[in-house]
Amino acid sequence: MVSIRQIHPVFVGEVSGVDLSKPLTREEAAAIDAGMDRYAVLVFHGQNITDDQQMEFTKNFGEIENAKGGNITKDNEYRLKKGMVDVSNLDKEGKPFARDDRRRMFNLGNRLWHSDSSFRATPAKYSILSARAPASEGGNTEFADMRNAYDTLDAKTRAQVDGLICEHSLIYSRGSMGFTELSEEERAMMKPVRQSLVRTHPVSGRKSLYLSSHAGTIVGWLMPESRDLLRDLNEHATQRENVYIHRWQQYDLVMWDNRQTMHRVRRFDETQPRDMRRTTVAGEAMTAEQAAAA
Ligand SMILES: [Fe+2]
Question: What is the DSSP letter of 46?
Fold first, then answer.
């Protein structure tokens, strides 16, 4: 039987009593889905699964998101099969990227607080990350509860953010790392999309701040004033008491709701392999109307 124990004061559940290498019963899938609505992040231990098993597990919660447009890695450089998102530091031959490899520099953007795929018009629902070979030191993933971030805003700020729309793009997140060397084709792929700054969860009805390093500006605001407010909100949202730190053990699997949380990975020894594999459940709706094509 699936049981879930809350392991952080405001969110995150640790799940036991389920084997993710086997097809889930309808009851198990429903219990996990309900756990996601409530805890926003679920931690499973000891799940030694294959890529196919991970994709089967993912499909219990919706369609697998098409990874196209999310990375600068070319199709012929891809290490994993279609449907899997490679968040390792490894090339196709299984070797860690060289220090100056563009793919490594691009992936360093994952050290910034973000919500997966917020740069897509229809952003991701859940992400599911399996630690096949975690870093021996460092490489923790941190999560912030964006519902609690919203709830703990002062009334004036809460009124101010309501109804605001942000523009999100990989150009903004990578640009803030100083990674600006992009081809015309890459730039076209990273065209900004619009997202509401406040989201309402479709099941619980709870509101959350929808922040991400991909958010670069607020529609109708000047750039510096946009960045000023976004930085302030990010600082508020990622205070220690609102953050859960996951220290990976091999075969941990962590799933999170991108609509209700942000996350970031911390530094680790990049000369050693860190093999982490993600699947993503596609979102069901846009959060804002998109700008008309120019
Ligand atoms: Fe991510």
Answer: S
